[in-house]
């Protein structure tokens, strides 16, 4: 039985200026027959991974066209694209001299990551949905009165709690993905789901204070790890807008792209250094 032809995922690494979008859009429309509006919407969000698997001929045509347009890109066989999902959410970890020690729910050691195996650290702040709060429900006596008035067709005062509910904005929640190599595993740490006892005398009263301390300790120990731009921004204490993601999945997608970029840039620099 013949094996199906492999499909490919196209990865674009460059952020395109407004003037660069039309020729790239025309390329994607010509090769994939996608509608120009859909192509423009995706290209405007680059860098990123093209959401549709492509047959080999289309992947080659896009790579050739992007090369002519001086846009950095590469193609991966769909079955070889690094898979970080689902990341393993951890709740207790410590940054020790030799590596990251991860504990289970009962405090038992479950994983050990030597620092030279930490390949990438990707942190961000995940937008949280606003909370809606309303007044307390009516007491049983007032509810009984309203019920009796309804039975005798006497209008009582309506307790429309939804109308009187008010919005309470919620702050974004810090999150970090730690990608290890050999074997490749992604660990997920959420700001308000973490036990920070390992910080010792650096421990602070709230998770919001402890998370950046833990992140700084993690990054300072993992000397060989690639730190994403939002991670560096959070370490510097920059404005949160530069570090926010709409969801955990968005951070995971971004992390996958940055992992691919780290490999691409390493190979590119090695090629340049060889003089070939």
Tell me roughly what share of residues is in helical segments: 25-40%
Identify low-pLDDT runs: none
Q: H/E series, N to C?
A: EHHEEHEEEEEEEHHEEEHEHEH
Count all strands and give the number. Answer: 15
Q: How does the helix and strand content classify structurally?
A: alpha+beta
Write up this protein.
The protein has helices spanning 21-32, 36-43, 56-68, 140-151, 161-164, 207-221, 229-236, 248-274, and strands at residues 7-12, 48-49, 54-55, 73-77, 88-89, 93-95, 99-103, 109-114, 118-126, 131-133, 166-168, 173-180, 185-190, 226-227, 244-245. With 276 residues, the protein is an alpha+beta fold. The chain folds into two domains: 7-80, Ribosomal Protein L30, Chain: A (2-Layer Sandwich), CATH 3.30.1390; 88-129 and 171-274, no CATH class. The protein starts with 6 loop residues before the first strand and ends with a helix. The relative contact order is 0.15. The mean pLDDT is 88.
Strand and helix layout:
Elements: E1 7-12, H1 21-32, H2 36-43, E2 48-49, E3 54-55, H3 56-68, E4 73-77, E5 88-89, E6 93-95, E7 99-103, E8 109-114, E9 118-126, E10 131-133, H4 140-151, H5 161-164, E11 166-168, E12 173-180, E13 185-190, H6 207-221, E14 226-227, H7 229-236, E15 244-245, H8 248-274
Parallel strand pairs: 5-13, 9-14, 9-15
Antiparallel strand pairs: 1-2, 1-3, 1-4, 6-7, 7-8, 9-12, 10-11, 12-13
Task: Describe the structure in brief.
This protein is α+β, with helices and mostly antiparallel strands and 276 residues long.
């Amino acid at each position: 039985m013949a094996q199906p032809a492999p499909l490919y995922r196209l990865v674009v690494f460059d952020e395109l200026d407004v003037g660069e979008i039309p020729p790239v859009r025309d390329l994607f429309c010509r090769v994939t027959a996608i509608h120009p509006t859909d192509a423009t919407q995706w290209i405007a969000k680059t860098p990123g991974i093209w959401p549709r698997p492509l047959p080999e001929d289309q992947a080659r045509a896009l790579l050739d066209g992007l090369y002519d347009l001086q846009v950095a890109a590469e193609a991966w066989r769909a079955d070889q694209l690094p898979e970080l999902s689902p990341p393993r959410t951890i709740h207790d970890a410590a940054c020790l001299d030799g590596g990251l020690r991860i504990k289970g729910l009962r405090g038992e050691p479950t994983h050990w990551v030597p620092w030279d195996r930490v390949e990438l650290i990707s942190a961000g702040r995940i937008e949280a949905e606003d909370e809606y709060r309303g007044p307390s429900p009516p007491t049983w006596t007032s509810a009984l009165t309203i019920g009796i008035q309804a039975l005798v067709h006497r209008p009582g005062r309506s307790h429309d709690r939804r109308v009187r509910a008010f919005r309470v904005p919620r702050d974004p929640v810090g999150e970090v993905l730690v990608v290890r190599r050999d074997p490749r595993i992604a660990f997920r740490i959420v700001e308000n789901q973490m036990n920070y006892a390992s910080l010792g005398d650096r421990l602070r009263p709230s998770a919001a204070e402890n998370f950046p301390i833990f992140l700084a300790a993690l990054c300072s120990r993992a000397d060989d790890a690639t730190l994403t731009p939002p991670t560096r921004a959070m370490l510097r204490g920059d404005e949160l807008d530069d570090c926010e993601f709409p969801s955990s999945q968005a951070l995971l997608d971004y992390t996958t792209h940055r992992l691919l970029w780290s490999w691409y840039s390493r190979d590119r620099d090695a090629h340049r250094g060889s003089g070939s």
